[in-house]
Amino acid sequence: KSVVNKIAAGEIIIAPANAIKELLENSIDAGSTTIDITIKDGGLKQITITDNGSGINKDDLPILCERFTTSKLSKFEDLQSIATYGFRGEALASISQISHLTVITKTKNEPTAWKAQFTDGMLNKNGAKPVAGKNGTSLIIEDLFYNVKSRLRALRGGNEEYLKIVDVVNRYSVHSKNVGFTIKKTGSNSNDLIIRPNLNTKDRIKVIYGSSVANDLIDLSLQANLDVGLFKCEGMITNSNYYNNKKRIQPIFFINNRLVACDPLKRAINQVYSSYLPKGHTPFIYLALELDPVNVDVNVHPTKREVRFLHEDEVIDYIVRELEAKLSSLDSS
Ligand code: ADP
Ligand code: MG
Questions:
Q1: Dist. CA 246 → ligand 1 center (Å)
Q2: Of all protein residues, whose CA lies closest to atom 8 belonging to ligand 1?
Q3: What CATH code is assigned to 2-195?
Q4: Is the confidence at residue 272, as pLDDT, over 80?
């Protein structure tokens, strides 16, 4: 069973950046307004993430790293939303199978924080210990993939893994209003990213991608009743008049607050811009879609990276039409 768990874990968490994505989602779901990350050796030696969210009840610590426990599920009444928001109760279970995991957490109702260490999904025998700490949760993940040598061999060096981590944090920073982020390497006394909680979306993009990108953005907010149901979308996209994205920043897509890849949407948008932008220039795109959860399937792939939704063509056509209208109205003004 243990070997099977490790193989399964190695398919969900295929690189340190996947672990970071899951941890960010948990911290954001817990209502955090600050999230601080420290990374050692591209996350392979150590990942530390500290948030100021709700904390985890002491009584929940023993089941924190179990897969699909009924007690985990009972917190959620609606099975559909479980699928939508990526709830599978698998992230910490997977991480604890392939690393040394320590959790320090405090809810506002507890007088102290509690420190819990996990091996193979189980809370260590001596249980959780009271320690000093602030409200919120810190996770310390050490020696990721220490027991999955094939995974370690498949990874790039620490620097490249670090860049992949920063990329995921950047994307969540653009999207997560009212949440502040910092990230740095262990031992460094300066942060590689500082996003203050109260920054607006445009200023977040400016801090991360520079003012030449930020100054060239226009708003794309949409709302419509489609066959797929009520559809909403918010975002910032390149103003075709000026933009010159030589760095080829990949599109930032969120669906129902989850960072996803959606290649059909990416291709359709790039197609629209191809008639506006000179060859070799790519648009900056940040789009956050909201769809009725029943229509979204995030579990087409274990890492939840690629997403599928019903009436995909209808939604994409609608976005493309609105985008074209917006760009041509700017063009003629
Ligand atoms: P899932 O997010 O799918 O429920 P996870 O393994 O990612 O599964 O997390 C399990 C549970 O642990 C979460 O549902 C949440 O209740 C709790 N949890 C994890 N991280 C945090 C955090 N940073 N703050 C508060 N609760 C957390
Ligand atoms: Mg989670």
A1: 38
A2: 89
A3: 3.30.565.10
A4: yes
- Which tokens in the block code for residue 91? 């992230």
Listed in order, the ranges of the chain carrying CATH 3.30.565.10 are 2-195
Alpha helices in the chain, H assignment, sequence order: 2-12, 16-29, 70-74, 79-84, 91-97, 149-154, 158-175, 201-209, 211-214, 263-274, 312-332
Distance (Å, rounded) from C-alpha 117 to C-alpha 61?
Answer: 10
Of 92, 256, 299, 304, best ligand 1 pocket probe by most atoms within 8 Å of the beta carbon: 92
Which atom of ligand 1 lies closest to the CA of 65? 6
Q: Is 92 in the pocket of ligand 1 (CB under 6 A)?
A: yes
* pLDDT, tens only, 171-198: 999 999 999 999 999 999 999 999 999 9
Q: Tokens in use for 333?
A: 């003004």
Q: Where in the chain is the domain with CATH 3.30.230.10?
A: 211-332
| ipTM value > 0.90 | yes
Of all protein residues, whose CA lies closest to atom 14 belonging to ligand 1? 89
- In the block, tokens 């009584």 appear at 59
**Degrees to nearest 5, angle at CA 225 with 219 and 226:** 100
Domain boundaries 211-332, corresponding CATH code: 3.30.230.10
Tokens 């930020």 label which residue? 214
Which residues are in the CB-under-5-Å shell of ion ligand 2? 26, 91
Question: Separation of 304 CA from ligand 2 center, angstroms?
Answer: 11
